[in-house]
Amino acid sequence: MTTKKMAIIATKGTLDMAYPPFILASTAAALGYEVQVFFTFYGLQLLRKDLSDVMISPLANPAMPMPVPMPVMVQMLPGMESMATMMMKQKLKKHGVASLTELRDLCLEAEVKFIACQMTVDLFEFDKSEFIEQCEYGGAAMFLGFAGDTDICLFV
Amino acid sequence: MNFDKEFDASGLSCPLPILKTKKSLNDMTSGQVLKLIATDCGAVKDMQAFADQTGNPLLATEEANGVYTFYMQKK
C-alpha cells in the first residue's frame, strides 16, 4: 500500500482558524499520511515559539456564538478581543479540546513537516529566532512540489 | 476482554482520543490489545474510521453511561 499524502496551506493566524490545520494534520499523520503544512501570511503566527498571543476577535466574526448578543459598536471597545480570547480558551479547556501548543507538538512528534513562507518572513520583517526550529523555509514552488502529488490538498 | 495496555482518554475531545490511540499503539507489539476509554461520543465513528484506515482491528466497542470502551488489536 502506498503512503497517502496530504498538504495544507494555513493562511490564518487567529485562535479559531488555527485549529483546523493542526487537527487535520495531526490526525492524518496518525492515520499514516505523510503531511506537509505550508504557513503563509498570517498563518506564520502559528509557528511562533510562544502561541499565547494567538487571539480570536468577535469583530467581523458574526458566526461566533456569544453569551449575549453584542452590537458591533461594543465589540470594538478596548479589551473585547482579550476577553473573547479568554472565554474561548476556557471553553476549549472545559470541553477537553487540546491547546494549540499541544496539537502542534503532536504534529511534530508525528513528523508532520512545517514549511514557513520565506516571502512572508521578509515582507513582515519577522525575526526567525521567534519561530520554532522544526520548520523549513521555502516558497510556492517547493510546496507545490509536494502538493502536486497529494491525495488531499486544503487551503485554510 | 483481555488487554495488554490501557489508556484513559476520558474528558478529551476530537482528535485527542485518536492521537492517544495511535501513540499507545506505537510502543506495542503486533497482536497485543489496547483498551481505550473515552467520553467523546464522536470517538465511536472515529475509532472505526481509524481501524478501517490503519488496518488495526477494532475488536469490540462497549458503552455504559456515556463512557465508551474500545478494544483495538495492533496489526
Textual characterization of the structure:
The complex is a heterodimer of chains A (156) and B (75). By secondary structure, chain A is α/β, with parallel strands linked by helices. Chain A has two domains: 1-51 and 99-156, DsrEFH-like (Hypothetical Protein Ychn, Chain: A, 3-Layer(aba) Sandwich), CATH 3.40.1260.10; 56-98, no CATH class. Helix content of chain A is 38%, strand content 16%. Chain A has a five-stranded parallel sheet, sandwiched between helices. In chain A, helix 1 runs parallel beside helix 4. The longest helix of chain A is centred in the N-terminal third of the chain and has 16 residues, at 15-30. Chain B is of the alpha+beta class and 75 residues long. Chain B has one domain: Translation Initiation Factor IF3. A four-stranded mixed sheet of chain B has the order 1-2-4-3, covered by helices on one side. In chain B, a hairpin with a 2-residue loop joins strand 3 (58-64) and strand 4 (67-73). Chain B is globular.
Please write out the topology:
The complex is a heterodimer of chains A (156) and B (75).
Chain A: E1 5-10, H1 15-30, E2 34-39, H2 72-75, H3 80-94, H4 100-109, E3 113-117, H5 118-123, E4 135-138, H6 140-147, E5 152-155
Parallel strand pairs in A: 1-2, 1-5, 2-3, 3-4
Helix pairs in contact in A: 1-4
Chain B: E1 5-9, H1 16-26, E2 33-38, H2 43-54, E3 58-64, E4 67-73
Parallel strand pairs in B: 1-2
Antiparallel strand pairs in B: 2-4, 3-4
